[in-house]
Amino acid sequence: MRHFALAALLGLTLIQPAHANIACGGDFASFVQGMKAEAVAQGHDASTVDAFFTSAQYSPAVIKADRAQGVFKKSFVDFSRAVISQNRMDNGRHYGGKYASVFDRVERDYGVSRGVLLAFWALETDYGQVQGNFNTLNALMTLSHDCRRPELFQPQVFAALELFTHGDFDPALTVGAWAGEIGMVQMLPADILENGVDGDGDGHVLLKTSAPDALMSGGKMLHALGWRAGEPWLQEITVPRDLDWSQTGLETKLTVDQWADMGVTARAGSLGAGGLPASVVLPMGRNGPAFLAYPNFDVYFEWNQSFVYVTTAAYFATRLEGAPVFDAGNPDQGLNDDQMKQLQTKLQSRGYDVGDIDGILGARTRSAVRTEQARLGLPADAWPTAALLSKL
């Protein structure tokens, strides 16, 4: 997954991480030598490069974690109920008060509402308590060597090298998530170079130990990714039973006024400004929870590309700002893991790009499901059922 990484080195001219293209796979020691040669070619001193890479090791545990993201196979209701605990709600209120002045600065400078950052802080590291124990350099080098996504991770190694040259990364001791993210809101080194903020004024950007640094940097990153100040991101709604379900999903954006004319209402409070573009999102189909997703919701996918995670994080943010618990409704029975893989295989054979056959109901699979539902005369709500699978 691709999380934001935060933190820039204050007052320094930085070498921007190059887009490396070192051949993946093969002997790991040879790969390390290739990365070292590339680092020197980028202008780094050879002795600095040697010191940075000397402890690099291949980590089978990182590959195992990369291949085992089964948590995202849960439905929205199951996943959200599992991760949004009463303890996390209580701690959200506690930390929201403790760092109120920091959240005020984030809102003033970057336009990001405090519930948004609190939710990420909670879901990523339990407010900084569980930041991961994978050696960051080993994680990045292992994923750079692996041939699944080397183009994503190789530049992160050189970004970490740049942090190292300024004393802000210890290749032997820096630890974090399995995918190389660092700190309280789990950020990648390249993003650390671009958007870091010294939130506590100590002259350093320390995302592992300083909540002000992490929160201010997170706000800056969201702003850079297009967050729109003063606008909502997700809102629970009530939808009429005769809604044109083929119009739902992130691919369709109508104005709030147009949705209201179609019978969509806010479950609590009022809908956003009438001219705002928005999508009706049904994580578990027409009989489950329903939300209106505003432009800021799209920014969430720059943080994490899992539909279930993103929807949960956005909903959690609304809860932390006073929204009620969602109405789970009575969703139709979904598919189990084997059935989901069968469905993805069938969709792929029909020419749809559903990504990996992984059993995860992501955005591309949902889009394909909606199209096939409409073709087969089923309610096109993007929630796959046994009836759809049998018709395919």
TrEMBL record:
<protein>
    <submittedName>
        <fullName>Membrane-bound lytic murein transglycosylase B</fullName>
    </submittedName>
</protein>
<dbReference type="InterPro" id="IPR002477">
    <property type="entry name" value="Peptidoglycan-bd-like"/>
</dbReference>
<dbReference type="InterPro" id="IPR036365">
    <property type="entry name" value="PGBD-like_sf"/>
</dbReference>
<dbReference type="GO" id="GO:0009253">
    <property type="term" value="P:peptidoglycan catabolic process"/>
</dbReference>
<dbReference type="InterPro" id="IPR031304">
    <property type="entry name" value="SLT_2"/>
</dbReference>
<dbReference type="InterPro" id="IPR036366">
    <property type="entry name" value="PGBDSf"/>
</dbReference>
<dbReference type="Pfam" id="PF01471">
    <property type="entry name" value="PG_binding_1"/>
</dbReference>
<dbReference type="InterPro" id="IPR043426">
    <property type="entry name" value="MltB-like"/>
</dbReference>
<dbReference type="InterPro" id="IPR011970">
    <property type="entry name" value="MltB_2"/>
</dbReference>
<dbReference type="Pfam" id="PF13406">
    <property type="entry name" value="SLT_2"/>
</dbReference>
<dbReference type="GO" id="GO:0008933">
    <property type="term" value="F:peptidoglycan lytic transglycosylase activity"/>
</dbReference>
<dbReference type="InterPro" id="IPR023346">
    <property type="entry name" value="Lysozyme-like_dom_sf"/>
</dbReference>
